[in-house]
Design a protein that fits this description.
Helix content: over 70%
Mean pLDDT: 82
Shape: elongated
Distance between the termini: 46 Å
Number of helices: 6
Largest sheet: none
Low-confidence stretches: none
Number of strands: 0
Amino acid sequence: QARREERARESLLHDAHSVALSGTRPTPSTSRARKVGAPRSVRWGYGHYLVFLSAAALGAGLAVAVDQATHASELSNIQAGFALTVPVATYLVTVWALHVRYKPSSLMRNYAVPITAALTLASSVTPEPALITGGLLAALVIIGNLVGPPTVSPR
């Protein structure tokens, strides 16, 4: 009983601090984050830095690919290929790592994205890494939709 009262008082104090510091009252999601624990929410939040970083780096990789195609770059074909495929592979693996533990396990869900990321990196040494990367991503989407979890039909 005393422990419960102590937790309620701490929660009330934390909520009062939140109101005083931010000017807003805590929402159920912030209360849930406290219960869930900091490591999971920190991993989720900072993991998205990698998602956005890789998406931004993909833009630079596309610019390098265009420069390479128009012979305006001094990079080798392999270097230009990696400039395109590393951000794609980073994006795939990061999004997969953030979501995989919250989804039901299956062969497709556990291995398709990491294998696609590895094949994407391997395509860097081919003459057309952008074309092969696009084909791999399209295949991942098609296979994911064909083998994906069954949908629930509305009643």
